[in-house]
PX domain-containing protein (Larinioides sclopetarius), 481 residues
Amino acid sequence: MHFSIPDTLEVKDDNSSSYIAYNLHVNGAFHCTVRYRQLYNLYDQLRREFGPNSLPPFPPKKLLPLTPSQTEERRAQLEKFIQLVSQDQRIATSDVFTGFLLSAQQETQNAKEEIVSLDIHLMNWQKITIRISSLARTCTVMEAVCNALKLDEKYTSYFCIYLVSKCNNDLSVERRLQDFESAYLSLKSAGSNHFLVIRKSYWDSSFEEELLEDKVCLNLLYVQAVSDIERGWTRADGDSRRKLVALQARGSKKEYLQRAKNLKFYGHIQFRSCVCDYPQPNTTVTISAGGRDLVFHLDSDPASENKAYFRVTRIKCWRITTSLSDSNDSNHSSPAKLKLELSFEYLMSKDHLRWICIRSDQAILMSVCLQGMVDELLSKRHGVKNEEKPEKTSRRGSWNYMKRDGSSHQISSNIGRSVSTDGIVQNANREETNNIIGRSKGQVRKITEKFSSKHGIKNGPSSPKPLVENDAFEGIGDDDL
């Protein structure tokens, strides 16, 4: 996950006293606004749970009001703290940490717990409507959807919920929802033309050998494959398309998928057009991620073979750079719009490494996809099965969430658990389906010290630039290229 605090906000409380609040972004999306004392309260509870030696330094309290330079220094220190603690999987999956993030999202949106109807779509746009708590975590929503689709519990880890935007027939994947957020609140804050969809969450198509034997999994994979081919994310030539259409007409879903698996870019996520410096500076490309590759489509013609393939095992490391857009208000009256950049160091040939830079508002999603591919490779090397989920940190105490006004309420691991067992699956003149993949966590090391970057965005305050070292990186010789 990628945490950042790109800017601050001056807020007045009920007594007209002003204070500085911090806008927290997770994976490129605004998540919540919190005060220093709220983060200090989180730090204090993490220290009691995991011990002071397990935590990075926390910026100290100040007796006097902060100057602008001190405010900026504290923002950077808080950002570094939240980035570091989120890399420890014991902390990142603990009730106190996830409960804090969920409660902060709830407070920021002034949300009250209520039972709501939430629509989740399959990739054929079939809709599943569930009745659930407005504060239900993503994992709880996923459980309800799987119950509605009658998906075997052992296969739920192969699917997940994505937030997508859709205008006419143009669909863009925005991000994968995490368990520390309310799916309902995240969808609500995203605004119109945004939807929740179920897609497979793994990259290695060899997992499908077993999944195709389950009827519900088969349907889920089938409708996604049909959708991806129709959108051009998976490329099929004329002859292949005719054969697939014939199989589709006969309802031969398994045969359809077995043929589709051999097509170019099967299972890839395609991103919006962006700008990179490969092969030349300011090159406009369309990038897709899937299998073990990042693919640069260097020509606007989908049939063009002008493509560059970047194998994940040849990416030595990568980093995300964030900065504020020039268009932000000077008074910071609203959460900042981020400018994002993904850079990765690639082994072009033996002893020749090159940095490649991508400027895209989906840079963090690309980074998450890269890490997912690396996690899968390392899991297979260590014999970890996909259905094996990381253990949840046990609670050893009672934790609380401090609100901005200083009042507190207890954090419960069961928050948002009230859920209807009956979901309504609405047939959109197509088939049924279902989803989520458990990835092995903590396999990728992050180094979070600041360093200068020739690719860094200069205008606006820039976040620390975490470097992600790829443990799946493989040295190669010229004969391997």
